[in-house]
Amino acid sequence: MEAFVHESSFVDQPCQIGVGTRVWHFCHIMPHVEIGQDCNIGQNVFLGEHVKIGSRVKIQNNVSVYEGVTLEDDVFCGPSCVFTNDPLPRSSWPGRERWKPTLVKQGATIGANATIVCGNTIGKYAFVGAGAVVTKDVPDYTMVYGNPARVIRRVRENLA
Length: 160
Description:
Elements: E1 4-5, E2 10-11, E3 16-17, E4 22-23, E5 28-29, E6 34-35, E7 40-41, E8 46-47, E9 52-53, E10 58-59, E11 64-65, E12 69-71, E13 76-77, E14 82-83, E15 102-104, E16 109-110, E17 115-116, E18 121-122, E19 127-128, E20 133-134, E21 142-145, E22 150-154
Parallel strand pairs: 1-4, 2-5, 3-6, 4-7, 5-8, 6-9, 7-10, 8-11, 9-12, 10-13, 12-15, 13-16, 14-17, 15-18, 16-19, 17-20, 19-21
Antiparallel strand pairs: 21-22
């Protein structure tokens, strides 16, 4: 199955969308985005320039993935979770040179309304709870909650 892009979405070229990926209503995919196979991009999702998304990634509704963010394979982004890319944002002082990359490693889950501050890495199969604010790296196989996010416990790939 080829990729499906809903007619209400905009896909700026050049970009790559993998086989079996579905892009739903009112999305905007900027140039130079790479999306793997069998992903599900929910309603009203924005993908900034040069964003890299692995295969089997699920991005729920109302998520903006800004330039500098990389999502590896099997990542889940819950509804309205937030990524940033500028640690010192000012509207009158553009600072693209200040932007910091964010990496979300294989199998990680980010809960609804969580905020991921730029410059941090979410580890393999880590779990960021709903509403958490991540201000530092999250180790592999770790669950974090709160503001700021704190380690709660270790987790397995299946969360058991």
